[in-house]
Design brief:
GO terms for molecular function: glycerone kinase activity. The protein is of the alpha/beta class and about 525 residues long. The protein contains 18 helices and 16 strands.
Length: about 525
C-alpha cells in the first residue's frame, strides 16, 4: 500500500494503464458512437498512454517528481490520438501541474484531479455532457474535499468513475439510442482503476466495461468528413485566434498543451483549410488527416504515376507542364491552397510525387498529401526549395521504375542541384551580405544572401561563378519577367568562355520578382 504517489509508482501506473487499455481496446472500440462511430477510441487511448509510458522509460531511474510528471504529460501530448486521447493528455497535464511540486498524498490527488478536470473541459471548445469530461468532472467533485490517505482517495476516485460511466448512457441521446456507455469515459475509468491497482498493490481486478445493451449497428451521425490533428508550435495568443477559426470550420475542436507546443484536434469538411489555419498561426507538424465519412464522400484517384509541381507564374508553369507535370500555379511570394494541391494530386495519378519548389509551400503540400493518402493515393513530397531543383528532379523522373526508386532518384537529383537568384531591391533590407538599398542587386546562393552589387549582369555573373565548381556539369537559367535583354546571353557567353564543358539550358520562366533563377548540377 503506497502512502505517496512517487516517481517509480507513476512509471508503474503509466505502463499498467497502457497495458490494460491494450487488453480492453476492442471492448472500448465497440462502444464508440460519439462524436463519430469510427470504432477507434480504445485504440486511440491505448496509443496515447503507451506514448506517455514510453516517454518515462527514457528517463534515468532517479528522475525527480517534477521531471517525471512533466515527461508523462509531454509524452501523452506528443502521442495523443483522437478526441479522447487529446483530452486525456490534457488531464495528465493537470495532474502534473499539482504533483510536480507536491508530496503525492491523498489530498494532492484530490487537487490534481480537480485541476485535470478544469484543464480538460477548458480545452474542448463545445463540451458535451455524457462524455469523458462528465466522468472526469464527477470524479473531481467526489474527491476534491477528501483528506484521507492516498489509497482511500484513489479508491473513491475509481468507484466514482465506474458510477459516472454508467450514468453517461442517460446523459447523451446517441448513447441511449445505441445502449452504450461513453467509450472515452470507459477508457478514463480504466486508467483510474489502474492507478488504484498500483497504489493498493492489487493487480488482479480490472474494470468490467459495460457491454452494449443490444447488437450495435450505429448509424453515422450527420457531420464533417475529416478528422484533422497536428502538433503546433505557437504562442498562446496565436492559439486563441486559431481556436476561433477552427470552431467556425467544424466541430469536436480540442486544443491542448502549453508553453509553445499544442496538440490540435478538429472535425471538418475542408481539411486543407484547417491545416492552413495552423500554418497561419504557427508551425504545424505531424499532420494526420482521417476520412470519417467515407460513404459517398471519397474521391477516385487517377491511375498511374504522376508528378505535381508548384510554379510561380504562367510561363514557369508552362515549363513544368512541357516536362510532364500537373502544375499548381501560385502568385509570387504566396503559397497555393491545400485544396489546389490536393486537386492536382487527384488528377496526377495513384502514385504521385509532389514538388513544392519553395520552402513556404512545403507545409501546404504536406497537408494535401495527408488527405490524398487517406483517400488511397501513394504520395511523396520532395524537399525541393527552388524551381530549378524541381526541374532537376523532374528530369530524372521515370514512371517505369518502382515508385520508391523513382522518389530516391528524384530526391538525389534535387539535392545535388545548387540554386540561386538575383533580385533588384525595392526597399531597404539588412542581410548577412550587408545592407541592401533600393536599386541594389542582391545575389542569393542556396537560400543565403551572398553578394550585394550595383549592376544586375555583373552580380548575376558573380553568383554563377561562385556556384559552379570543378564537378559541375549543367547550369539551368530561368529568365524572369522584366529581365533586361541579354542577361541570360551574358551568363551563357561567360560560361562558354570559362567552362566550355558545362551544358547550359535556358528557359523563359516569366517569374515575377527575380530577373534570373539559377541552378547548377
Amino acid at each position: 500500500m503506497l502512502e505517496v504517489l512517487d516517481p517509480p509508482a507513476v512509471r508503474r501506473w503509466s505502463r499498467l494503464a497502457a497495458e490494460n487499455l491494450g487488453r480492453a481496446r476492442e471492448e472500448i472500440d465497440a462502444l464508440n458512437v460519439f462524436p463519430v462511430p469510427d470504432g477507434d477510441t480504445g485504440t486511440n487511448l491505448h496509443l496515447t498512454m503507451l506514448s506517455a509510458a514510453e516517454a518515462l522509460e527514457g528517463l534515468p531511474g532517479d528522475a525527480d517528481a517534477a521531471t517525471t510528471w512533466r515527461t508523462l504529460a509531454q509524452g501523452a501530448l506528443l502521442g495523443a490520438r483522437g478526441n479522447s486521447g487529446v483530452i486525456v493528455s490534457q488531464a495528465l497535464r493537470g495532474l502534473a501541474e499539482v504533483f510536480g511540486t507536491a508530496e503525492g498524498r491523498g489530498a494532492d490527488l484530490g487537487r490534481g484531479l480537480a485541476r485535470a478536470a478544469e484543464l480538460a473541459r477548458a480545452a474542448v471548445e463545445r463540451p458535451v455532457e455524457g462524455t469523458l469530461l462528465s466522468v472526469l468532472g464527477s470524479v473531481a467533485v467526489a474527491v476534491r474535499d477528501l483528506s484521507g490517505d492516498l489509497a482511500s482517495v484513489v479508491r473513491r476516485a475509481a468507484e466514482e468513475a465506474r458510477a459516472a460511466l454508467r450514468r453517461t448512457t442517460g446523459q447523451l441521446d446517441v448513447l441511449a439510442r445505441n445502449g452504450v456507455v461513453d467509450a472515452g469515459g470507459a477508457g478514463l475509468a480504466l486508467i483510474l482503476e489502474s492507478l488504484a491497482a498500483v497504489v493498493t498493490d492489487s493487480y488482479t481486478e480490472r474494470l468490467d466495461i459495460p457491454a452494449p445493451a443490444h447488437r450495435l449497428t450505429p448509424e453515422p451521425e450527420a457531420g464533417p468528413s475529416y478528422e484533422v490533428m497536428y502538433l503546433l508550435e505557437a504562442d498562446t495568443a496565436a492559439v486563441g485566434a486559431l481556436r476561433g477559426e477552427l470552431d467556425a470550420l467544424g466541430d469536436s475542436l480540442v486544443v491542448v498543451g502549453g508553453e509553445g507546443l499544442w496538440n490540435v484536434h478538429v472535425h471538418v469538411d475542408d481539411a486543407g483549410a484547417a491545416i492552413e489555419a495552423g500554418i497561419r498561426h504557427g508551425r504545424p507538424y505531424r499532420i494526420k488527416v482521417t476520412h470519417l465519412a467515407a460513404a459517398g464522400r471519397t474521391h477516385r484517384a487517377a491511375r498511374g504515376r504522376g508528378v505535381v509541381a508548384v510554379a510561380a507564374g504562367e510561363a514557369l508553369g508552362a515549363v513544368f507542364e512541357r516536362s510532364g507535370a500537373v502544375v499548381v500555379r501560385r502568385d509570387p511570394g504566396a503559397s497555393p491552397s491545400a485544396a489546389a494541391v490536393l486537386a492536382a494530386i487527384r488528377q496526377a495519378g495513384s502514385e504521385v510525387v509532389v514538388l513544392p519548389n519553395d520552402s513556404g509551400t512545403r507545409e501546404v503540400a504536406a497537408a494535401a498529401a495527408e488527405i490524398a493518402r487517406e483517400e488511397g493515393t501513394v504520395v511523396s513530397v520532395l524537399p525541393t526549395r527552388a524551381s530549378v531543383q524541381g526541374l532537376a528532379a523532374l528530369a530524372v523522373h521515370d514512371p517505369l521504375r518502382r515508385f520508391d526508386d523513382d522518389v530516391v532518384a528524384m530526391t538525389e537529383a534535387a539535392a545535388h542541384t545548387r540554386y540561386g537568384h538575383v533580385w533588384v531591391a525595392d526597399r531597404v533590407v539588412m542581410t548577412s551580405a550587408g545592407l541592401v538599398r533600393p536599386g541594389d542587386v542582391l545575389g542569393v546562393i542556396d537560400g543565403d544572401a551572398a553578394i550585394v552589387g550595383a549592376d544586375l549582369v555583373e552580380t548575376a555573373l558573380e553568383v554563377v561563378g561562385r556556384m559552379v565548381s570543378a564537378s559541375s556539369e549543367l547550369v539551368t537559367l530561368l529568365e524572369g519577367s522584366g529581365a533586361p535583354g541579354g542577361l541570360m546571353r551574358a551568363v551563357q557567353d561567360r560560361l562558354a568562355g570559362e567552362r566550355p564543358d558545362i551544358e547550359v539550358i535556358r528557359y523563359e520562366g516569366g517569374q515575377g520578382g527575380y530577373p534570373l533563377l539559377i541552378g547548377v548540377e
